[in-house]
């Protein structure tokens, strides 16, 4: 397995395709219903965790208002000689305060994880995303496996079994996303760098 510098991993993750381009047969992001508010914007972002020190995540909402892209510049998981336990597993709790038109609510339809992986045979990566809304009971979880042997860009998709909607009655909602990734076993050199795409569905209250 050829070595790769950590400096280049973030750019490789950001440049990775956002559709299913790794031959794994995974579906792309689910198509939303088509009903969207005229305006959606991010009021605030809060980051907490070993995978996203302050100032290391970029959040963008696309023109259709149905896709949120989160790029982590320091969400890099490593194993092998010279690494420590803190390198083998990373997590990030991302809190987004979104503002939108009165009379709408939204849910997460699907999650795409894309980036760059360098995983030898016999090792595997696993990422789990959990979403919830402040003030609403219930959570939506996705798990994505990344088995070895592989080296290069990847895109993996997952859809929830249960959909959780933001509360009605206001023009803002706080969405919490907790992403955890690990590589096992830890004795062989392996790397993962990550970008997360979140597909949203909107409906009228």
Task: Describe the protein's architecture and organization.
The chain is built from 2 helices and 10 strands. With 205 residues, the protein is mainly beta. It is 7% helix and 54% strand. The N and C termini lie far apart (52 Å). The chain has a single domain, classed as Jelly Rolls (Sandwich), CATH 2.60.120. It comes from Chaetomium strumarium. Pfam families: DUF4360 (PF14273). This is Secreted protein.
What separation lies between the terminal Cα atoms?
52 Å
Helix-strand pattern: HEEEHEEEEEEE
How big a fraction of the residues is strand?
A: over 45%
Spatial shape: elongated
User: Total domains, how many?
Assistant: 1
Q: Total number of helical segments?
A: 2
**Based on DSSP secondary structure assignment, what is the total number of beta strands?**
10
Query: Which structural class fits the helix and strand makeup?
Result: mainly beta
Strand order of the largest sheet: 1-4-9-6-7
CATH class: Mainly Beta
């Amino acid at each position: 397995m050829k070595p790769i510098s950590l400096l280049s991993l973030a750019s490789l993750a950001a440049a990775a395709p956002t559709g299913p381009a790794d031959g794994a047969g995974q579906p792309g992001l689910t198509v939303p219903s088509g009903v969207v508010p005229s305006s959606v914007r991010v009021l605030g972002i809060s980051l907490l965790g070993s995978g996203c020190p302050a100032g290391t995540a970029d959040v963008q909402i696309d023109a259709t208002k149905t896709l949120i892209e989160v790029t982590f510049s320091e969400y890099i998981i490593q194993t092998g000689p010279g690494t420590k336990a803190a390198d083998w597993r990373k997590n990030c709790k991302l809190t987004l305060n979104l503002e939108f038109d009165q009379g709408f609510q939204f849910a997460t339809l699907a999650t795409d994880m894309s980036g760059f992986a360098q995983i030898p045979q016999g090792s595997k990566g696993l990422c789990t995303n959990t979403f919830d809304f402040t003030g609403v009971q219930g959570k939506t979880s996705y798990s994505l496996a990344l088995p070895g042997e592989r080296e290069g860009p990847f895109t993996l998709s997952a859809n929830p079994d249960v959909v959780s909607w933001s509360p009605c009655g206001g023009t803002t909602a706080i969405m919490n996303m907790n992403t955890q990734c690990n590589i096992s076993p830890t004795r062989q050199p392996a790397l993962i760098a990550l970008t997360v795409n979140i597909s949203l569905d909107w409906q009228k209250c």
